[in-house]
Amino acid sequence: MEYHSVLPNVCISCSVCLCMLVQTAECCGYPISIFFIVVNEFCERFSYYGMRAVLVLYFRYFLLWDDDLATSIYHAFVALCYLTPILGAIIADSWLGKFKTIIYLSIVYAIGQVTMAISTIHDITDANRDGTPDNFTFHIALSMLGLILIALGTGGIKPCVAAFGGDQFQEHQSRQLNTFFSVFYLCINAGSLLSTLITPVLRVVFIAGSGMYVKTDPEGNIMWSVCKCIGFAIKNRFRHRSSSYPKREHWMDWANEKYDKLLIAQIKMVLKVLFLYIPLPMFWTLFDQKGSRWTLQATTMSGDFVSILISTVNPILILTLVPIMDRLIFPLIQKCGLNFSPLKRMTVGMLFAAMAFVSAALVQIEIDKTLPNFPSSSESQLKVVNTYSTTLNVTISPNEHLLIESFGSSADYVTFDHQDITVSLNTNPVITKAFSLIKGGRQTLIIPSDPTVMRDFVLRHGEQWCEFSRKFGFGASYTFLIPSTVFSDDCESITEVEDMKPNSVHMALQIPQYFLITTGEVMFSVTGLQFSYSQAPKNMKSVLQAGWLCTNAVGNIIVLIVAELGKLPKQWAEYLLFASLLVAVSIIFSIMAYFYTYIDPAEIEAQVRKEQGLEPEEMEKETLEMEEKDEDQKNEQGVKQTKI
């Protein structure tokens, strides 16, 4: 069976024609397959960021880890997510191809998310149903397994999705290709606003577009080939280190004896960009603390609706700033005659991130003014609560005197530099009792209504019951005193003692730092994605994308080291340290960018091929490919005419 196109003298099989029509179909100048890719990325990113947004809180309040350990494990996970792209690039380029790699590792990803969700169900090990897991080891092991699977899944597909999207564009769609990376980044952040119930349904959209994709076959283990070529060049250069051997233009030229000149030229292009990546991890060191240090900072602040706004402010700002920058700010700068190149944008993005941490430091200084004075590791603190019917004069050895009203408490926690204390009450007769306090902790001593007898009161939902409500402030801690007459006065006799005052610094103060870091992200990350793709040889785009993502991994490792080893006494000082380091790094990067020369990888590859000289068979093959390309464009025009 044959299909005859509207163009004369063109006859091709029906199946081939349908495939060609599907793969060249466009909408608004973009390949239709692109829309399936960005929708998939939209959903995948929500799955990742939705989990990551509460991860440090899960560590802190479910697994009961301290701030530094929660921060360290959080950044270790993020670092792993940005190291596994190397594995994904190898699998895609040498074995499965980008499409199958995305599909298979997405399955691993989904299993990891399910495992992580199961680890949060405390009832699995809560045999006595007291609300606390009985076996934390089980939950920790399950959550770590889930995080490893998620890291393999999300990291493995990272270098493939952006490069796979770029593969869908033809040469005549260069303008759309440049816009694609902004749209792609928009979808990454828009995904974090999507409901978790809708996400699993929409993830199948990527598979639904299978027939429309341009799927390039794996081109061999390019990563391994690159490593072997670099290794041979270094080894060969070391062998010929004597001054009797003539110098070569580039150290990679020492691989000429064994490897193809085209491969060497491609590696030179990749190394040139990778050298430029060296200062970049410091940006990610600051940026990814949004999900750790900044989240923990928010837990010491007040706010109801604003707490929801803060959790979504980054993606909302991304959705707003990306089109504004892409369509208004950058074109306006260009019209003013300023050369605002991609590398200059990235430098400005770094400076915005540094300013964000200065803003975070100023907020932290305000928070520190309101925080209670906690005991040091060698001190103990005690608050005394009086449920006795009269005011009590309490003496705590050696010379601490407290006057506490009935159903009242000491004004604040009393700090002791020793553990063993003796408490005396001026009752008749005088009651004295010894206690041992916990070092580095806070405790509350409750004096019952009859100091000689301890009574337990149980509230039951039987014939007698009453309802008591109290709105708690963020960060506050209370002790409620319930007398035996609680049912007779409809809970009116319940007395509260405020152990810790609620947070008073509002979360709205975090908005400026989020605005600054997001502006930096738009200028740095979106531009970096586009720059990496444009400067990479065609067969090494996944490799360079993996290299770009590895800068994020190194940045998170830096946070991990500082969190575990730095131990700065004040959090605001740590913020200023990171801001200062990024300013210094941005200066270094701007100098490196000044000497960088932008390249056209396709032009360099063509020049190398020309210098090598093509065999007649290769010339014929190249000519045939050009003819087929021209024929495809003619067929595409014919299809458009038919639609009209």
Automatic annotation (TrEMBL):
Composition bias, Basic and acidic residues: 621-637
Any one Gene Ontology biological process term?
oligopeptide transport
**Which PROSITE patterns does the UniProt record give?**
PTR2_1 (PS01022), PTR2_2 (PS01023)
Q: Where in the cell is it found?
A: Apical cell membrane; Membrane
Annotated signal sequence is 1-27
Q: Which domain of life is it from?
A: Eukaryota
Q: Which GO terms describe its cellular component?
A: apical plasma membrane
- A Pfam family that this protein carries is PTR2
GO molecular function ontology, one term from the record: symporter activity
InterPro entries of this UniProt entry?
MFS_trans_sf, POT_fam, PTR2_symporter_CS
Region listing for Disordered, in residue ranges: 610-644
Give the main localization category.
membrane
What keywords would UniProt list here? Membrane, Peptide transport, Protein transport, Signal, Symport, Transmembrane, Transmembrane helix, Transport
Q: How does it sit in the membrane?
A: Multi-pass membrane protein
Q: What is this protein called?
A: Solute carrier family 15 member 1a
Q: Which gene is this protein's source?
A: slc15a1a
